[in-house]
Fold these 3 entries.
Entry 1:
Amino acid sequence: MVRISGSPAPQGLSNSRLGLLHALLHQYGPPRWSRYVREHWSGQRLVIAVPWIWLFLFFIVPFLIVFKISFSEIRLAMPPYAPLFEWLEEGRRLVTTLDLSNYAFVISDGLYVSTFLYSLKIAAVSTVLCLLVGYPMAYGIARAAPTTRSLLLMLIILPFWTSFLLRVYAWMGLLKSDGVINNVLLSLGLIDMPLTLLYTDLAVYIGIVYSYLPFMILPLYANLEKHDITLLEAAADLGARPFKSFFLITLPLSVPGIVAGCLLVFIPAVGEFVIPSLLGRADQLMIGRILSDEFFANRDWPVASAVAIVMLIALLLPIMIFQRYQRRELEAAKR
Amino acid sequence: MAEKTIDRSQEYVRIESVTKRFGDFVAVDNVSLNIYKGEIFCLLGGSGCGKTTLLRMLAGFEAPTSGRILIDGQDMASTPPYERPVNMMFQSYALFPHMSVERNVAFGLEQEGLTKAEVSNRVADMLDIVKLGEFARRKPHQLSGGQRQRVALARALVKRPKILLLDEPLGALDKKLREHTQFELINLQERLGVTFVVVTHDQEEAMTLATRIGVMNKGQIVQVGTPTDIYEFPNSRFVADFIGSVNIFEGQLIEDEPGHVRIRCPELDTTVFVSHGISSAPDAKVSVAIRPEKIEMTRGAPEGAENLTRGIVKEIAYMGDMSVYLVKLDSGRMVRVTIPNVERHADERIVWDEAVHLSWHASSPVVLSQ
């Protein structure tokens, strides 16, 4: 046993290496937290600090950089924008070029506005479709026997085990004019001409609903699974038919789950880049595509940044609603 | 409780040899039972005895495996819960968390398609009855346990059901509130004239509330009777033991006359003289049940006692209103005796390790053959 402090080391060890270690420890003492750290840093704060630092470094800082670029002028240089502050005449004059024209351009140019509105429409329709498909599935899983439940949940998550890109390409194979769906319909004699499925809004809806369905189902399931079945019994006892009980009891109580699921689908769907690029129309781009084109094809970083900022602000609203609901649900759960 | 005049000529609820199986498990085993109009009928039993399953079959949440349930003469077999003339107060209350007190109570009436004015009138009346008028706009989570219980009661009663089913209605309340609420429930029942069927595991609750009690064990009804019947004249060891506390001695019938019997109990060092006849085979093995409060405990031997034995006080539990004594007989058997604490001062009370005489009246023991 090594005694760290207090009584001297046992005699036999005093000349050995352990004795030296002991002497050092005795002299300097073990490292101690300063009084401030002990009084003001709780374990809780340290745990919370980790995600805060993460978010600061990888969200706030990049956001501020993009925010700054959005006010710059485009310049054919590397990086391709003018600095906001410049020292001219060998440091004797500070010049600021705060350029709001990027925003004016983004807002006034019909292309950006219509693309943005189109993205919102695609995302909104996809979200509603996801809800209509996902709610019955989530409900079914929540009401299934516990053993079946975990199997069904695994099946919901199963598609994530293959690459997202691969799954979208697979949809191209299904939807194209000589694809699986058209071939089957033709051979059954249901249609004479191949249907135009690929490169349509429909294909984008299918792709988004297919890809984002788990994000709708999982929060809905988490909510529905907690519901107290005796509430439905009470409703039946009071004279409500099952159909009515669903609309009066289950549906209102699952609103937090619906909101969470919808936002988890809607927010990424607005900025979706891959699915509309691969499955969507060529004449109507989504905002994610515009963003990437401005950045990489046009190398117009200031305008791209302005697009990104406008999009972010427009999406911040639903996130804030989401957080309000989440907080409300948390408070309700505490009681 | 006060005796009420209940019309026993016609049953209101008729349970005809109802059995309910869940897989191999028989939850309710061939139960037949009549419940009369205006009664408070208590189903009393331990957990897993089938009392809640029976109640749920009355509500329509479970269908009997076999047998029939008739309510007011109508077979309920094909009537779903939402069409039955019964309402239930759930053990968990099952209040709708997203609705105010008012909306909870109105829920059942809205399903009946009543006019808005009538719904709000009846809801307001009912909330007055349960003294919750000022809490009408609160949500359930803003109420105390006792208030939630009253909302649940109001929500079920506002439908004016033929029968109100109550599943452990007072189980979630603390003792003081429970006693108070018991009497409120009885008052309410008398005022509204609704037939109550109450499920409880708490015998005190059953004794206070019930006009009649049905004691259940392992899916079967073992005895039906008034609280007095059940307590003073239990028909089996199970009932005697389940309701209140009791001293049960094994014995053998040695004298069997129409007017009295004599039973030899080895544990008692004496024979037990019982002043009423029983119908049993001679020399049959029987159990003698004596309630602790029916045993008299004295220092000296009382004169002319028909049943007398001796022992030494081993344990005393002071309960305030009474004291429970555990007396060890010469045979080693422990006997439970309760003595009301009439005097405030403890000078005269029997203390630990005192030698005492135990005696009881010849009419006190109950002879049980099963």
Entry 2:
Amino acid sequence: MKFFTEIDRLLRGDATRASSLRAGRIEIAVRTLLIACASLGALYGVFMGLFAAMGPNVNIGQLLASSLKVPLLFLLTLVVTFPSLYVFSALADTKLRPLETLRLLLASVAVTLSLLASFGPVTGFFTLSTDSYAFMKLLNVALFGISGIAGLWFLRKALDSLFDSDRFLPSPAAEPDLPSTPKKEGAEGASDDEDEQEDDDAVLAQPLPPPFMPSQVASRLPPVRRTSAEAARARLIFRVWTVIFGVVGAQMAWIMRPFVGSPDLPFELFRKGRVSNFFEAVLQTLGTLLN
Amino acid sequence: MTGRLAPVELLLRSRGRFSASSRRVPWNQLVLIILATGSIYGFAMGSFSGLTALWGQSVVEPERRILQAIYSALKVPALLAITSAICLPSFFVLNTLLGLRDDFSAAMRAILTAQGTLAITLASLAPLILLLYCSTERYTVASISNGLMFFVATLAAQVMMRRHYRHLIARNPRHRVTLLVWLILYVFVATQAAWMFRPFIGDPQLEVAFVRADDWGNCYVKIFEAVTRFTSGR
């Protein structure tokens, strides 16, 4: 029951309130998020595999395979796209630390899968009332698309409240610190590895130092301008990432196919032959349906 | 983020001992980062023919294909190191000529940090390359996408280079010249070095090889010959 309460809090946006995001945390455990992704994805996978299970070949295997593949699809897409997102947001020196970013992305995947699971009965209803494989494929593409957009909307809302928060204003204490930084580094020359690691965390936890510019140039730039530029950079990175996530997800789904399972083909965990891609396949299916 | 990734994070954010103003340059960490992340990308890059074999297309000696990935894992960091080693003497002399010797260690730090950024960015793009290899059997697509990944990583490295050079240029505008010369020289040498070190991806129709030693030559001459052939219509 506690599990559903947690998911409910996530969907209501209570877990990603501006106040907690500002403190750099999302009030929901990674374990809960992973369990949510696995169970909600599996639930929709069952509805998705129902078409093959009820077809002439009665492919029960497809039902099981789809319930494993749906959560795996989202998590693998995250695995493929997260490293580059991390590198580019660190390079732009945004406030987002890797673990928090990962948790936020997992939360958006959980939101996507919650909506998708809630579409389960719709898919089930159409499975019972239609014979057209092409229609079922496109219906699933549409439902995945809608859920994905909802997940990204959730992500964007969370990021907005994060970037607009005053956490980005450099604290006045940061500036007097700067001249002393080189001295600190020099003094620690002989420290061993463990000390260095603690030091790493301390350095990363510090507010952003002023940009590396001669003082006369830096003094002409108001600090707020840099922070808003930083938020703009972070937003741009996330926008580009969103597109990459979508394309990678679509292609990942193509590689992991079949999800619905053609009624004319025997059950296979993965289809052989990987030439072509997701987008070509959707256009072809659309052509089949219209002809 | 603690533990082993912390130096990477500090490097990308130019903080702490990786900041442009830090006195102590963590040379050994920089070299380790370049070796490790360069190898990760190299391994992914060289796994094309192995993956193609896995997916059932007939290839020459499928069981030896893993070697191509291992070769590339060794060759990517080597490519970065050798190119830098070739370019450094002229860079050093140029810096001295322009009276920038006092800043040379800062310039070296900028160069190594940029190489680190290049290698880290490449490693972060490795899963994308693997996904792409799972989606195509065409060698041309594989080589174009790897070119694209190197281009993106070079842009990231330039961001880092400029970040480090900003305060050097503010101190002496002549640093602009050395920055530009380094970029041109590096790309010029790296292109030829990459040609000599090929194959990185490994054409599934050709044999696995550490280098294609029988056909070294000069890539610029080859390009020129190809262009002449094309224009003369032969």
Entry 3:
Amino acid sequence: MPVTHRFLLLLAACVLAPPPVIAETSPDVWDKVRTGLFAGRPISEQIEDVIALDTPMRAEDASTVPIAIHVKLPAGGNRSVQKIYLVIDKNPSPLGAVFTFFPDSGRADLETRVRVEEYSFVRAIAELSDGSLYMAANYVKAAGGCSAPGGKDQAAALARLGKMKLRIDEPIALDRPIQAQLMVSHPNNSGLVMDQMTRLYEPSNFVRRIEVTYAGRPVMSADVDFTISENPNFRFYFVPRGDGELKAEVVDSHDLKFESSLAIRQGSGVAN
Amino acid sequence: MAVTDISWLRCGIGTLCRRICRIVCHLVCHIGATLCFAAGLVHADVEHEGALPVAEVAPGIFVHSGHQEVSTAHNHGDICNVGFVVGSRCVAVVDTGGSIVIGRRLRAAVKATTALPICYVINTHIHPDHIFGNAAFKEDKPTFVGHVNLAAAMAARGRNYRNALIRDVGADVAESEIIPPTQPVADLYDIDLGDRILKLRAWPTAHTNNDLTIYDEKTGTLWLSDLLMIGHTPVVDGSLTGWLKVIGDVAQEQPERVVPGHGSAANWRQALAAEESYLRVLLNETRAAIKAKKTMQQAIDSVGWQEKDKWLLFEEFHRRNVTASYAELEWED
């Protein structure tokens, strides 16, 4: 499964990104992404009872646009969200992330921050356990003025590369979804930046795979790329069934591995 | 005071009239720069053609005050303070405006002021309103000077900035180019314009990660550019905590006068204190929001809105300041 997604991410990055003008001038990026990911499968936009996508009207800071996906399916119902695909049409790599959820996720809600380069649709496509697809799409205006998707201080970002934080901000209660936050210090470079002196592209360097487990059972995994903002940040849910360890493993495009864990005891809301 | 204002040539609105104005202006300017000086009277609201109006704020230091706006097709990116310093040997241009059009008009102002060559073009930082006129000076073959981090910032942002420029200002400024510095400044660097030394200083990450200031020893003028924004909402695009430190250092300086990046004020120390006060509100309230476990979006919706009436363009820049501040401060332990 991850192989397919990695391939698709790679395909999106390689075929649609350089030269970046393709993504900017092509009016039918979404059609291409849709065909590549879902072939002819129908995608419903009747999403009121399924998912909601929260985005700001404008990408105030093009490098850091907070987005949230909320699942509205009733808990314990016969349908659940198994995957969420995140597509930003006009970005150099339109398919930015594929999130996978598990029974121990509890809720497939997700918050993160993305780069938004141009006036573009931001799309969250949910794949349900019955195979059906639902899409929430919001139009986001690009930032004006001096805002740019590039980082503000690459030196500072590189200096603490790989530092991670896992946080839980509420008391632990068993058998119900608890929200956790994963922060990864990483420059998350696109590699689309040309050095003006050497005329060479700097190598890309971004987080590409995230796996979170609780007590050894999968909670959330994601195949992502530089669409996610510098210092990738995710809020997600998991259901503790007893004491255990919440563990996040992160792999970047240089195959560097980082991990962080948090021991959880009932009644505590500790952060590491 | 040599003010190159040609507002007396204005015929009103309309392309045809502007064309006639341009032709007349070119004729007048070609006949002799002194004629252009003659009318140093009132400023028009928006001038579209000819030399940028400049004020000689100290002997040999000429500053054009940009509009307190965002870049549009109407203002061509004439939204920040730009200018030049004249020595006995040559001229240093300080920032070049938000498009090739403004760069050309700034160059015309230089040419209307002095016959000396332009030997330096200094960019005080990466932002598009300060650099997109660079190409207008290529024919002068100047040394382009910038912070040691400027070239990398241009590489990272150039494409996006160009797209935004064409989108917001229009295709008629498509000749605007990103031109990286040929002389990077890592710390301190002196430029000799002839009987005039400009002392350049590269700062640690503050407004951006490539802020450069210029001090003219002869007149005691400190060109702070966007390290001091007056009127215009300060824009955090480097480091909030870093900028507050740099403001502390700047406050120790004893210049005769300063040139801010936006706006003007009779008392620059008061203006610096106002900027610091806004940044401290951002710092304290964003830290408190993170501590209270608010999300970034919740912080954006709640932090600092009581400052709204004190600043121009607050709607355009404040949310982004909170975003950047949150992303920076959440890594504090």
